[in-house]
Each structure stands twice: as C-alpha cells, then as structure tokens.
Design a protein that fits this description.
Shape: elongated
Radius of gyration: 27 Å
Oligomer: single chain
Strand content: 5-15%
Structural class: mainly alpha
Helix content: 40-55%
Number of helices: 21
Largest sheet: 5 strands, mixed
Number of strands: 7
Length: 587
C-alpha cells in the first residue's frame, strides 16, 4: 500500500486539465448528496422552517445577536445575548470565522439570514474535493478517484453530525491525512506541507475547539514525521515551527474568547459521552440491514460507523498474508500519525473502556487528578473520527492496491460499495435531518405595538441552559428562550436567557441574585419586558400599581412603564387574580 507513483514527465494538456477539475467533480458529489438527503430547501439562507429544533436554534441566535452587536473584544462578542453575561459566537457554536466574515455585510443581508444550510453543503463539497485528492495518491484513474471520494462523502459520521453543524468540517481531517500521505521530495515541499497544515489549524480554531484538538494532534504528528523520519527539517526548525504555530493558535483562542473570560472549561459528563470499542462497526440504527449493537446510554457521541458499503470492501482484500506486508511497511513510514490517532482514540474511549456496552475497564479514580483538563472534552467520543477516516483510507488504499492489475473489476467493486453505502443510509429514506421544524416565533398582534423605549427582555427567573443553580430554577419550556431571543433580535432588544456551550457559574449566580433582589425590592426598569414564570407571578402582582401584567402569546408579561401603546395592550389582556398571601411573596 503506497502512494501512486506515475512516471515523471510532461503530461498531456487534457490530462492536466482533468487532474485540476476532478476534485471539483468530487465537490459536486458532495452537493448532490446534500440535496439527496433533503437539503435543497435548506440552501435558501432565509428559510428557517427546518431549524426550530436541537442545537441549530442556538447557533442561529448567536449569529443574529452578533451581527447586530458593535465590534468588540473578544472577537464575536454578543453583549445583547444572555445579558449581562459575557459570551461570544464561539460559545454559541455560531461558527466564529463565518460570522466574522459576514458581519461587515450584515446591513445588506435579510433579517432572517442564516448560513447553516450553505455551511453543511460546503462541508460535504469540501469532503468530496479532498477525497479525490486523497484517492489520487493511490490510483491515477479518474473514475476510481471519484468512487473512492464518494465513500468519504457518504461517511455516516459526517451526516450524523448535521445537528451540530460546526462539527461537520470533517474535510479538515481528510485534508490532514492527504498532507501526511503525499510525497515530499525536499525541504521546500515540506515547508509547503506545513503551511497547509497551519492554515487548516487556523481555520479549525475559528470553527470548533474539538476539531481544533484533532487537527492540532495530526499536525504535530506531521511535523514529527517530516523532521525525524523524513529528515527534511532540522530539530531547531521544527521547534520554532511548533512554537510559532502554538502561539498563533493560543492567540486565536484568546481572541475568540474561548479562554480568558472566566468561563469554566471542565464540564460534567466525561466518561459517559464516549466511544465504544465496537464503534466502527456499530450502525446504531443507521443501517437498514445490520442490527445495532449494544452501547451505554450516552455513547451516541462516539458514533463511528464506517458504513455497510465500506465493511463489504473488506471482503475483497483477500488473505492478510497478501496485504499485511504492505500495511506493516506503511505503518513504519507513518508511525507518528498512528501514534496521534491512537492517542485520540484512547481519549475517545475515555476513562471507562466498554465493549458492546459492557464495561471492561475503568480507571476513573486513577485519572481524577486530570479531570480539570479531561473534563473540557466531556463529549470525548468525537475523537473517534480520525480513526474512522484513517481506517477508511486504509481500506480504500488496500482495495485499490489489491486489484490494481484488474481495473474493470476494481471499478465494479468500488461502484458496488458506493451503491450499498447509499442504499443502506437510513437518513436518505427518512430525510430526518431536514424534516419540517417550524422556527419558534411569537406571533401575537400586541408585539406590533411594542414601544421604541424598550431595550431588554428579561425572563424571570432567567433560563440558562445547563445551569444547576437554584436561582435559575424555572418551569419555562426548553425552547422558550428561542421565542424570546427571536423577539429580542427582531425588535433590537437584549435578552437575559439562552443556551451556550460553557458558562461562568459565578457570573450567572451574581446576575441572577441581583435580579431577584431588584424584583423583591420593586426596582423594576421601565425599559424592560419581564417575562414571568407562572410560579413567580405573585411576586410581580404583589407590587401593585407599580407594574402592569398581562398574558401575551400564552406568557405572563409585566412592565413597569406607566404609559405606552404596549402597556395599553397589556391592560386589555390582564385578568384579576386574588392577592397573593405573604408566603407567596418569597423570591
């Protein structure tokens, strides 16, 4: 198993043109697969009726509040979202780089503009693009390159992550594998390879931290390989390259607000959201043919299924005695890559090793001292992806090598694998990822009468997703923050509630307790809409004529303003209720 070694010489012009165009054909495969999965309507950036569920709403709101915010530091700061807390588009998973690029043009974009559909389509397109380039290392035949690239596009782990769009840039991992495997005849080409790796790291730093860790690990292995095995760089050059790259990436993490904001890095759940040892062959209900294997409750984060078509390819490898020497030689030549992928795989398995859902080994007590670091990656199962793509690459390379003398047979084998992979993709038939999911928007006519002096929407108590503080306990529905965030964005207001990946619990507690004290002492702001959880409504009613409360869109809304069109509308909806008892007036 090795890279394709065609004879040197000047290729004919048509062949050069085909070589340049073929990756774009792979990109087209990605777009076509996106459409086949039901994503055509999602390409409309103003279409929201598929984003009203899961994490997508969080990502959209983060981008919307950022586009309206003044420029500030850290980059991507969204002062109007979850005010007065400090958060950024990084913590709302709103794709920092894309958000930053689009912000200067926000004034010319439609109010409902979102880029999730376009981003997902581009991830599949880039996966197809890089899949062709990777396959070109193993075969000069265009059809074989495209068929191999199709299996990268059809990788179940990619479509499985659609619900978390910023985690779908798997083309970065494919690109790193390509950089590892492509020939480097001299130090000049080595530096060119490392510049490419640095660019991918910079992009990953502004897309998602989990991808950044994977890309950084693979890039470090590449630097080691270029220096110690290929001897194309001196140790001093390698050290300076590593230091410079690390400083740059640390600076980007600081600039995007991932660090330095007092936000806790560690989170509960490490060891639960892991990968099972059978992850690569466990369909987890993805297949219409193969049964799901047992896993523990939260191990969906470790989904790593290769796909039925890829598993069928293994049958065409023949006897291990034939191809094992090739594998061993390749492994020796790329030992740093195997080490990096191996370490990421161990991280994916976490401190609790499971086989078919059965715990084989737990070293949790031995690793408690490392939990402040490990806890940052509670969804550690995601680190199975580099192993997934390395195994996929290895299977394709071996099949191409095994049948290199019979290209027609190889075409049939690859075509059959692609067909099986397509037909056995459950998502193709259910189109669940793009099912109708109406955007959650308040529609009462009273909102048209909202006065211009209002500046804030305050849920009481605030809804802070994943907060365990007693002060934030409420009976709001999980997605109510979306309705009020949407209203706040469209009316140019701030909101105190929302959903972010990480929070500063101390700041949450301080702001929540300050709000409780203000309500208890009647210090309400006239420029604020108070959306009151029903069990807390008596607190506001107990303030008497100081507030006006009513029901709009099924929510309790109170204001302290003494005049205005919206207050008049609230008075029309208000109903008399018995005065609360003293016990009911506790905050």
């Amino acid at each position: 198993m090795g890279t394709n070694t065609r004879s040197p010489g000047i290729a004919a012009s048509p062949e050069r043109a085909l070589t340049r165009l073929l990756p774009w054909a792979g990109a087209l495969l990605g777009v076509l697969w996106f459409i086949a999965l039901g994503g055509a309507r999602a390409l409309d950036p103003t279409y929201l009726e598929w984003l009203g569920w899961g994490d997508w709403a969080q990502h959209v709101l983060g981008w919307w509040f950022f586009r309206e915010a003044p420029w500030g530091f850290p980059l991507g700061r969204t002062p109007g979202y979850m005010a007065p807390l400090t958060t950024t588009v990084g913590f709302t998973d709103s794709n920092p780089w894309i958000s930053l690029v689009l912000k200067p043009f926000a004034g010319g974009l439609p109010q409902d503009f979102q880029f999730i559909g376009l981003w997902l389509a581009s991830c599949l397109a880039l996966q197809g693009f890089m899949g062709v380039k990777l396959m070109a290392l193993f075969t000069p035949r265009a059809l074989h390159q495209l068929l191999g690239a199709a299996l990268f596009v059809l990788a179940p782990v990619l479509v499985f992550r659609f619900e978390h769009d910023t985690l779908c840039a798997h083309w970065m991992l494919t690109a790193l594998l390509w950089l590892h495997l492509r020939p480097r005849p001299d130090s000049r080409s080595a530096w060119r390879t490392l510049r490419g790796a640095l660019l991918i790291n910079v992009l990953a730093a502004g897309v998602h931290p989990y991808l950044m860790v994977m890309v950084f690990a693979l890039s470090t292995a590449l630097l080691v390989n270029v220096t110690w095995r290929e001897r194309l760089l001196t140790r001093r050059q390698a050290g300076l390259a590593f230091l410079g790259g690390t400083v740059m990436l640390a600076g980007l993490f600081f600039a995007f607000g991932y660090v330095g904001q007092g936000v806790r890095g560690a989170a509960h759940g490490f060891g639960a959201y892991s990968a099972d040892m059978l992850s690569l062959i466990n369909p987890m209900a993805w297949s219409r043919v193969l049964p799901a294997l047992p896993t523990r409750k939260d191990q969906y984060e470790g989904f790593g299924y290769l796909g039925t078509g890829v598993l069928v390819l293994i049958a065409f490898l023949g006897s291990p005695a034939v191809w094992w020497p090739e594998v061993r030689a390749w492994a020796r030549a790329h030992a740093p890559l195997l080490v990096a992928v191996g370490l990421l795989t161990l991280l994916a398995f976490s401190t609790t090793l499971t086989f078919g859902g059965v715990i084989l080994l737990s070293v949790r007590k031995l690793t408690d001292v490392f939990m402040p670091v490990l806890g940052m990656f509670r969804s550690s199962g995601r680190f199975i992806w580099p192993l997934h793509y390395l195994v996929l690459t290895g299977i394709l390379a071996l099949v191409v090598w095994r049948w290199r003398e019979r290209p027609a047979v190889l075409t049939g084998i690859l075509l059959g694998a692609v067909a099986i992979q397509v037909v056995d993709t459950e998502e193709l038939w259910t189109q669940r990822r793009f099912r109708p999911a109406p955007w959650l928007r308040l529609g009462a006519p009273e909102w048209a009468q909202l006065d211009s002096f209002y500046r804030h929407v305050v849920l009481y108590p605030p809804y802070i997703h994943d907060s365990k503080l007693p002060c934030t306990e409420n009976t709001f529905a999980r997605d109510d923050y979306v309705r009020w965030g949407d209203l706040a964005y469209r009316k140019g207001l701030s909101t105190n509630s929302g959903y972010v990946a990480r929070i500063n619990e101390r700041h949450v507690e301080q702001s929540c307790e300050a709000l409780v004290a203000d309500v208890a002492q009647g210090r309400l702001s006239v420029d604020t809409l108070y959306v009151v959880d029903t069990p807390k409504l008596a607190l506001f009613q107990g303030l008497g004529e100081q507030v006006t409360c009513g029901t709009v869109d099924g929510f309790n809304v109170c204001v302290a303003a003494r005049d205005g069109r919206f207050r008049e509308e609230l008075l029309k909806t208000a109903t008399r209720t018995p005065m609360p008892s003293t016990m009911d007036l506790r905050p």
